[in-house]
Amino acid sequence: MSDDKTFAVVYVRGPQWNADTPFHEQAGVHRHRDFLAAQHEAGRLLFGGPFLDDTGGLAVYTAPSKEELEDVLGTDASVEDGLLRYEVHPYIVAFKK
């Protein structure tokens, strides 16, 4: 059994976000999707997606610690480029089908 913990990551607009452009049309957002796909393939990302009001998105990850997850999240090109920022919160999946 894994000792990984679960974390909710709220992605929010960064300083390079263009307020006049929808999320899916933001410059470089495809790199964020590629990052998320790689995290899902690696088993870190359980699920996630954008908010429908174009303010950011939510992703739920597993990792040994918050610090280790933040090390991984910091490699997301959309974070490095300032398109997005993130907030990490310890999370418990209380209800699941």
3D architecture notes:
The protein is α+β, with helices and mostly antiparallel strands and about 100 residues long. The protein has one domain (about 5-90): Dimeric alpha+beta barrel (Alpha-Beta Plaits, 2-Layer Sandwich), CATH 3.30.70.1060. It has three helices and four strands, in the order E-H-E-E-H-H-E. It has a four-stranded antiparallel beta sheet with strand order 2-3-1-4. A hairpin with a 5-residue loop joins strand 2 (about 45-50) and strand 3 (about 55-65). The model has no long low-confidence stretch (mean pLDDT about 95).
Brief description of this entry?
This protein has 97 residues and is of the alpha+beta class.
Features:
4-stranded antiparallel β-sheet; single chain; alpha+beta; 97 residues; Alpha-Beta Plaits
- Total discrete domains: 1
Query: Into which percent range does the helicity of residues fall?
Result: 25-40%
Strand order of the largest sheet: 2-3-1-4
**CATH-defined superfamily:** Dimeric alpha+beta barrel
Q: How many strands? A: 4
Q: What's the helix-strand series?
A: EHEEHHE
How big is the Rg? Answer: 13 Å
Please state the average pLDDT score.
Answer: 93
3D shape: globular
Per CATH, the class reads Alpha Beta
**Which spans of ≥5 residues are poorly predicted at pLDDT below 50?**
none
* Level-2 CATH architecture: 2-Layer Sandwich
Largest sheet at a glance? 4 strands, antiparallel
